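Session log. Operator J.P. requested a structure for one protein chain; no other inputs attached. Running the standard single-chain path with token output.
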Amino acid sequence: MAVATQTLEELCINSIRFLAIDAVEKAKSGHPGLPMGAAPMAFVLWDQFMRFNPKNPKWYNRDRFVLSAGHGCMLQYALMYLTGYDSVTLDDIKQFRQWESRTPGHPENFETPGVEVTTGPLGQGIANAVGLAMAEAHMAARFNKPDLTLVDHYTYVILGDGCNMEGVSGEACSLAGHLGLGKLIALYDDNHISIDGSTDIAFTEDVSKRFEAYGWHVLHVPNGNTDLEGIAKAIAEAKAVTDRPSMIKVTTTIGYGSPNKANTAGVHGAALGADEVKLTREQLGWSYEPFVIPEDALNHMRQAVERGASNEAEWQETWAQYKTKYPQEAAEFERLISGKLPDGWDKVLPTYKPEDKELASRKHSENCLNALAPVLPELFGGSADLTHSNLTELKGFGDFQKGQYQNRNIRFGVREHGMGAICNGIALHGSGLIPYGATFLVFTDYMRASIRLSALSRVGVIWVMTHDSIALGEDGPTHQPVETIASLRAIPNLTVLRPADGTETSGAYKVAIEYAKQNRPTLLALSRQNLPNLAGSSIEGVEKGAYAVVDCEGTPDLILIGTGSEVGLCVKAADQLKAEGKKVRVVSMPSWELFSAQDAAYQESVLPKAVKKRLAVEAGISFGWCKFVGDEGTTISVDRFGASAPGGVCMEKFGFTVENVVAKAKALLG
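Structure written below.
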């Protein structure tokens, strides 16, 4: 087959395929099969339907594209290079999967401008896309006017069999169907192959019927290899359905064009090999050398640059009219997408005196959220069916439901993992929204991949976790987090905060809101039980991560370190020890991460090296505390699973009493 016989469309599609083949071959690592099979649907989508500006990847009203099957990322990198993104050059393609490359082995939003979300673990991308679509719907409902449409774009996804097998996709897509997100369109690369071989060894369900049951509009293109007209017709039909998300099943051949490896697991996750690359070039009539793209194909694909500039210019005209006609709304919209906080926003955060009523930190959290909601319209979130336990409802701001997208309380249902991935998508939309997701602390295990990805992707989400220790009581060890906080502290770039009282909870929210705007996630661990308000607590202390809430004259004999509900225990124990002539400092350490980020002088001022006698008190495992208590210090901790009993009884039986803190302190002092 001679090159000259290929149509322009075939040249473009094969350009995508061979950029992927050649990059994987050069790296001797990667997944060529998906790009080879999905190239036709991706070409049709990017060439005929998607609105984007390659020269301004952050143009607000662009359509969002998510490659949920992120292992096939050379598909996206090829599309970005061919359509003129500056962030992916031909040299970048040649450096696929190499050190400090802008073409890493899975798409990373923080590494490659134009990549919307970080997709590695399967299913995360489609769930992120639900969040992107929710953000679009919310902003459109808040800012569009009858005469001026400011927010109007689609979220497109390519997902594979693996994404559909992962549970997180089911959680998110179920919610998307309930919400009727009509601008979410997913193209399912139905190629019947996964790493272990044909999917029929483990996956024989009717995916189309499942999505229909979710409430999606479902279409099928039986020949995704060559039926470009059928693909285009399906996408157009999906766009015409505005009251439901759409799933287009596109049946393809993985590794299309490879004579010996197409439709096998062998082309899924390994380079074709030199011999098979040669045969594939012959099969597809591709006489070009590696990384050489025919001029006709490149010229056609690069029309996206002019098209994108025109689309953005048209939107800028709308934006100029909007600013004139609706200056108040325009100012708010501009502030939101700029990522700036309003002046004085933090002044609404409450502070407390010791005589104020004792409340659980989850209740203080509710007070903070509802104080912040009127001054921070970007707060947008909810709970995984635990609203009245997590206390996360923004009162008076309504539920985000189909036809009520302007409202700000999201009902995630019992879908922790989906909630996490959706929140990441909301934050990555670029609208300046600050999503928060809530459940019991122990159920972070159900959503750990999403929390980890919020940290990896540099996403400004607030995780609001309540029932933070054995003190939650009767629900027992299945619900009592013991190792959970330690495991969360192990995640790089995640700031964990466990506040001791009302003022510290306000401090935690101050950090969380500021970090959200810096694209950094935080996790708040909040109590079920009431906590005393401490005389020495402060918002500023929380920002430092650790500080003295009780001090003494001169160098202490002993330092008691507490977090959360245990700080109050330490304060009472210190009173007894001081009455007996001991010099005691009590340090509240709401955040290991924030304290570790302080300079050496500040750390020395709080935990002087000369003071070797240190006792850390935390209702969780002792793992990691050696960093702060040293060789001569010790802990009161829970190095086993909890028990089913009233919370107070659990705390007493596990040694979290003033008497035990005093006894351990005296033993430490000798």
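Operator note: The CA atoms of residues 89 and 582 lie 67 Å apart.
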